[in-house]
Amino acid sequence: MQTETNVCAGRRLAIIPARGGSKRIPRKNIRDFRGKPIIAWSLDAALTSELFDEVLVSTDSPQIASVAREFGAAVPFLRSAESSDDYATTADVILEVLRCYEQEGQCFDEVCCLYPTAPFVTAASLQKGLSLLRKSKFDAVFPVVRYDYPIWRSLKVTENGKVALNFPENLNVRSQDLPPAYHDAGQWYWLKTASFLRDGIVFGDNTGSIQLPASQVQDIDTEEDWATAEMKHAMLDLR
Question: Which tens digit of pLDDT belongs to each residue from 44-55?
Answer without folding.
Answer: 999 999 999 999
